[in-house]
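Researcher: Quick test of sequence recovery. Tokens follow.
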């Protein structure tokens, strides 16, 4: 009777190659969005990886103005080439416009660390979000900057402040839009929300009343993250945990405020047209 094969032996070369390829992709994502001075770790199966991905996905802040594939632009690699080392640089260029480049400086020994990047900040603040943020844009930039330097606690603090400022605007918008249509119970609910709800609950309450429910199909976790950011849920979290938290609520935050801004703008345009008709 033959003995069952050792588990380690069942990992074929193909499997290892597939694992390395997945890890390289993950490394590409880390290059594009990971924080500086934060280690990217390898598993036992992927620790011998020694080449960076040929392409990464980045927002192109040039004429493209959207996410594009960026390609490594230096071509000096021989057969024994390794990307590992201390204080090395890698340059990626937008494949579409061939104008924008992103350079990273890194250390790659057991783990991988980004230690510098030019341009310094991801440029991908959506123009619509910029408009929607209005006066809060400067705070938002600081949040993104803190995040890219690995200061997760700082990043969520800035985001928290913007959420607090914007929530009041959101509640006003809801009141303007619905008050006349509401029955006494709805008005009571609104007053209750305004005075007793936490910020994240107010956002969820108001956004659900104004925006289509499809907008929040996958938003539950993000609202939970928003809640943590705007309540005591933040205490005791590490920088890394805060970065994860920031990323989670950044998504719903961006989506909600963009949509609300659009909604508000459409409403104002409609009101202006109506007013013009009456003249
Ligand atoms: Zn481009």
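Model:
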């Amino acid at each position: 009777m033959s003995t069952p094969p050792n588990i380690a032996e069942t990992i074929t070369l193909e499997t290892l190659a597939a694992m390395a390829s997945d890890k390289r992709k993950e490394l590409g994502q880390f290059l594009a969005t990971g924080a500086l001075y934060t280690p990217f770790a390898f598993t036992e199966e992927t620790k011998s990886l020694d080449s960076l991905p040929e392409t990464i996905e980045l927002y192109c802040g040039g004429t493209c103005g959207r996410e594009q594939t960026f390609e490594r632009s230096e071509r000096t690699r021989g057969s024994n080439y390794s990307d590992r080392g201390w204080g090395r640089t890698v340059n990626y260029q937008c494949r579409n416009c061939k104008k924008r480049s992103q350079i990273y400086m890194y250390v790659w020994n057991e783990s991988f660390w980004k230690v510098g990047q030019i341009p310094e900040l991801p440029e991908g603040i959506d123009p619509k979000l910029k408009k929607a943020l209005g006066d809060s844009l400067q705070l938002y930039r600081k949040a993104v900057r803190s995040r890219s330097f690995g200061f997760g606690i700082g990043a969520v603090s800035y985001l928290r402040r913007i959420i607090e400022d914007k929530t009041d605007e959101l509640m006003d918008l809801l009141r303007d839009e619905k008050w006349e249509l509401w029955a006494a119970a709805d008005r009571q609910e609104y007053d209750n929300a305004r005075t007793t709800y936490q910020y994240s609950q107010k956002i969820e309450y108001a956004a659900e009343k104004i925006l289509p429910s499809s907008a929040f199909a996958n938003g539950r976790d993000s609202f939970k993250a928003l809640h943590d950011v705007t309540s005591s849920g933040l205490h005791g979290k590490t920088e890394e945990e805060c970065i994860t938290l920031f990323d989670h609520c950044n998504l719903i935050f961006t989506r909600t405020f963009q949509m609300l801004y659009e909604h508000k703008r459409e409403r104002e345009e409609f009101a202006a047209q109506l007013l013009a008709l009456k003249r």
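The beta strands are 55-59, 67-72, 85-94, 101-108, 112-118.
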